[in-house]
Amino acid sequence: MRRESTENSAEGEPLVGDGVTPGIVRVGDTVRRPRRPFTATVQSYLAHLQASGFTDAPTPLGFDDHDREVLSFVPGEVPREPLPAAVRGPEVLVALAHLIRRLHDASWGWSPPADAVWFSMPGRSGAPQPPIDGPPELVTHRDYCPGNVVFRDGVPTALIDFDLAAPTTRLYDIANAMYWWVPLWDPRDRPAGFRDLDAVERVAVFADAYGMTGDQRSRLIPLVRRMVARFHRTARAAAEVDPVFRRLWDEGVNVRMPRAEAWVDSEAPRLSAAVERPPSGS
Ligand SMILES: Nc1ncnc2c1ncn2[C@@H]1O[C@H](COP(=O)(O)OP(=O)(O)O)[C@@H](O)[C@H]1O
Ligand SMILES: [Mg+2]
User: Fold this and answer.
1) Which ligand has its closest atom nearest to the C-alpha of 31?
2) Pocket of ligand 1, beta carbon within 6 A
3) What angle do CA 242, 36, 132 make, to 5 degrees?
4) Residue 10: pLDDT band with limits 50, 70, 90
5) Who contacts 115 (Cβ-Cβ below 8 Å, separation ≥6)?
6) What is the mean pLDDT of residues 62-84?
7) Separation CA 18–CA 248 (nearest Å)
8) Residue 282: other Cβ atoms inside 10 A
9) Per-residue model confidence (pLDDT) at position 249
10) pTM, two decimal places
11) For residue 58, what are the contacts with CB-CB under 8 A and spacing of at least 6?
12) pLDDT in tens, 194-241
């Protein structure tokens, strides 16, 4: 078996995504990633997803002799920032919303292990962030940046990098996906192919494809505002203590985050009106 023959190898083809996690390699049809405090918890969540029939995520395969986690390699293309114009179509938002809806439905009801450990941002000294959307409902992915979404045939088909998985709400996860893929940024900071798109309309497209309830729709944009404000605060705090986050901050997050916060605040009435409009055809 291919995996056995490479089991003891520290070698492999380096996989560099957003440059957040060093030491990720591909070995045959597996990916090896350094073990972190939350890794075993994430693997138990991935095992639950597999068992419940959600197969559009890596299969957890335990740990190797180099104390790395082993995951199945998910075939497809992973876009890099800035998002290419090829992924600006509404069919991409629709497929992503369907994928996340299926992930939520598969995650619903899963109880994490009693000794679960979750990711925390550098600069937070291990303390979990207080929820900004009420009590958690489920464990889910929480980090739909482009480098964590696998495309096949031009649309999102699978999710990888569950490092930020943690108890949260469906609504928070939806807000996170919209932030990256609408995207909910100041037009000046959007990728070139996305500046002329109507963000307001795209929020409604995603909401309809997910099948958001009326209650979720009325709470979405206030949550988006709290989420973007928190992204700004936590990115700044992490930059003070962590070299990787410092580099990201200096390379543009320092300009982008305050602008995203201001843009979301000023567009909130239009965004709310679009998402609270009943889906066409109903
Ligand atoms: N299981 C996987 N299947 C396919 N590609 C993967 C897998 N895990 C990682 N990759 C590739 O490696 C890149 C970086 O891995 P990721 O787990 O997202 O780490 P980071 O924490 O750096 O974002 C991804 O963007 C993707 O291209
Ligand atoms: Mg990633």
Assistant:
1) 1
2) 15, 17-18, 20-21, 24, 31, 58, 71, 73-74, 78, 147-148, 160-161, 163
3) 65
4) low
5) none
6) 96
7) 10
8) 5
9) 96
10) 0.94
11) 31, 46, 71, 72, 73, 74, 160, 162
12) 999 999 999 999 999 999 999 999 999 999 999 999 999 999 999 999
Report the Cα–Cα distance between both ends of the chain, in Å, rounded. Answer: 53
